[in-house]
# Entry
Amino acid sequence: MSPRVDAAPSRVRPVLEVTGLRKSYGDHVVLHDVDLTVHPHDVVCLIGASGSGKSTLLRCLNLLEDIDDGVIELDGREISDAGVDVRAVRSRIGMVFQAYNLFPHLSVLDNCTLAPRRVHGLPRAAAEERARALLERFGLADHAGQHPDRLSGGQQQRAALVRALCTEPTLLLLDEITAALDPELVGDVLRIVRDLAAAGTTMVLATHEMTFAREVATTVCFLHEGRILEQGPPEQIFTDPREERTRQFLRRVL
Amino acid sequence: MTPDPDPDPDPVPGRAAWSPSPRELERRRQRRRQRTRSLLVATAAVVVVFAGLGLAVVSSPGWPRVQALFFDWDHAQASFPEIRDRFWVNVKLFLLAEPVILLLALAVALARSSRAALLVPLRLIAVVYTDLFRGIPTILLILLLGFGMPALRLQGVPNSALFWAGVGLVLSYGAYVAEVFRAGIESIHPSQVASAEALGLSRGQTMRFVVVPQAVRRVVPPLLNDFVSLQKDTALVAVVGGFDAVFAARDYGNFNFNYTPYVVVAVFFVLLTVPLARLTDWLQRRYAERERAGAR
# Structure
């Protein structure tokens, strides 16, 4: 059992605390009464079938979707308040999308320095230095000057990760970042996420890679029809799930 | 060997029973207050800006004179019937020129995007045509054609200045619209062509069934923009004596030394173009909803 799981007593203030989150599109309720607590250095993996609400939950956390009920707190401050400065919140949260969503008209380096320079007010030299260091670390140093379309899928996704990390976010949200990749490219991207997890980055990620989730997660949440049906340390969820639904799901995917 | 367990959704408890929490109700009130506030700010801004503009115009020293010369109700009434009747010339010109422009422009755009060796001369003609007619100011083209072509006394074609002015509009706008179509055709991703060709479609079929339908949809807003522009430019036929609404207004104005008829014509043109502008907005919205599924 990972020691970090036990190191989450109530005296440590959670990075993210979600209570009673509800999200619906018209009559269709996508998330029911979701509770989720993320402590510093936690890696929370959201698993579940397509359409179970994993992506919507991540989008709600980043305020890309208006929620219909509940409270989201980041570092003890409510961010689901209607009067909150949405941009200030997002500038502290990093997000990586399934389809990379790099800006095709900018070079990889410019993709990575856009937010640090325009949102965080970093001088160009400092922003580029930080971006280059991260690109180097993720094996993309040679591609800094290229436009995203020149890169392979795996390289693009790594560039998207660097772009998200360049703002030094408190919390990193990863939305099925390997789902659009060829199997042989998945490893490169997951290796980076593994490194980030080892370095103590706080992350919430939706994933279909069960072996990976089992390996890096401190907490695994199983979503079913918009509810977190079961959550716990990976050892428990993967070997001895409490819920029949979780067992069924794992039988299908493992 | 066990079959997939049936993932039947159990009746979700509490779905009907849900009612917003006090926090949510408070948030809704807060959102409502924000909406009310922005509505108030918008209203105030509109009132201040427009009242200010109106005041600036009315309080200018020459306003009484301008009012008598351009905004005279009696002259407006007197010139109205003639302008109304003559406005049909503009409308008819527009309605006739429009389809011709569309066909011409699409043909030119297709000729320019063709890659067949045999069609190279056609491609050259298309390039020269767009370069030439986009370069000539429309008013010059109408003057040249409207005065020059009737003088040739060609047999079998109409020899009125109005007809040739219309041809001038078609040629000028055809060149513009062709470029709009071409931009649309080139914006379709090569993967679409590849997948059409992979299905065994010929290049012509690929264009007709896959590329052009998508391209046209994509360029509808700029196309309608050009049409609004064309509606207004039908007024240019007045320069070669095409007896349209503008000509009628100028006639009246010169005779009575009052420019109110120009304002009357302007109102007619605005009334004609506004519906098309709204149609553009609506089409754009529908495109966004249907083909991008409201993605953000």
